[in-house]
Amino acid sequence: MKNLFKVSVFLILACISTSVFSQAKIKLGHVDSNELLKMMPGRDSAMQKMQDYQKSLENQLKAMQNELETKYTDFTANQATMSELIKQTKQKELQDLNGRIEAFQTSAQQDLQNKEQEVLKPIVDKAKKAIEDVAKENGYTYIFDAGVGVLLYNDGSENILPLVKKKIGIK
């Protein structure tokens, strides 16, 4: 009898919670964040900063490689007349310079990624805020990012890109 009562209460609660959840209106939206970021104000200048920074790193790397090439050419041209101690010293110098070049390449890649995040962060943050504002203002429950392949089906979803563009001031 007690078990029957418990089961009955459980079933009643399950029915009530199901009907409450089914009455909750879910409004879905989607936006292509990649497309939005391409249109964002300030993106072009940020990308130019990135290209300038990348160019400066490439120039530094090229200078180091030219130095290595010059020293290697000098070493190969003159090694026949060098004493064994000088040869070993020059070889060690070439190996050290090559190691510094490899370390610089690794460091430069990391620096470039950090610079990209630093330069693009304000733009990405502004886009995220606009998406959140549009979602709240228009009663969306979920916004999916169609730009990263997250959205697989969108029959019941609205594209909010025009609303976000309007919010940011993009025409």
Low-confidence stretches: 1-11, 13-21
CATH architecture grouping: 2-Layer Sandwich
Q: Tell me what portion of residues adopts beta-strand conformation.
A: 5-15%
Number of strands: 3
Derived from helix and strand composition plus strand pairing, the structural class reads mainly alpha
- Overall pLDDT metric: 84
Structure in words:
By secondary structure, the protein is mainly alpha-helical. It has one domain: 2-Layer Sandwich (Protein Binding, DinI Protein, Chain A), CATH 3.30.910.20. Helices cover 74% and strands 6% of the residues. The protein is built from 5 helices and 3 strands, in the order H-E-H-H-H-E-E-H. Strands 2-1-3 form a 3-stranded parallel β-sheet, with no helix packed on it. The longest helix has 54 residues, at 84-137. The radius of gyration is 31 Å and the shape is rod-shaped. The termini are far apart.
Give the topology, please.
Blueprint: H1 2-23, E1 28-31, H2 33-39, H3 43-78, H4 84-137, E2 142-145, E3 157-159, H5 161-168
Parallel strand pairs: 1-2, 1-3
Tag the structure with descriptive keywords.
single chain, 171 residues, mainly alpha, Protein Binding, DinI Protein, Chain A, 3-stranded parallel β-sheet, 5 helices, 3 strands, 74% helix, 6% strand, rod-shaped, disordered N terminus
